[in-house]
Amino acid sequence: MTRKSPHREAHAQPDVSAALAAHFKKFAQATALWTGHPAAFLAAVALVIVWIVTGPLFDYSDTWQLVINTGTTIVTFLMVFLIQNTQNRDSMAVQLKLSELVLAMKGAQNKFADIEDLSDEELEQLHEECRARADMTLHHLENRRSDMRKKPRAAAQRASAQRRTSRVAAKS
Asked: Which of the two residues, 10 and 89, has the higher pLDDT score?
């Protein structure tokens, strides 16, 4: 009998873990696609209707109620993990796309590209910085709008004054 070295076993484990993760990913994606399909919803509704119709056959017994309670509990428990896996993948994909956009934009602050790795305190500080920049930008825009409104009034007042001056000059 050959003896396996602990070093080899330690290296074999990531391969098993990666294979398990790959299989789970395929299973989770297929399950998410199937359970999100209208046919899956109709199948669940049909199952509930069958359960309701069989109630009188079983005299609405505790066992009859236990069947639906146990079934829904098990399905819900398992779906939590599948939904979380799908959400994690989707979130990571969106984050990567946003990071790529931030890195590709000229003048963008690259510190936003890896924002998901910051601590809660760092995120809060960055949020406050962004809020202050947004407030400053809003104030700047409001000032520009105000200036734009004043300019047409000033131009209209100058034009009116020029008309009055030309009328007075024409009368003399």
From this structure: 89
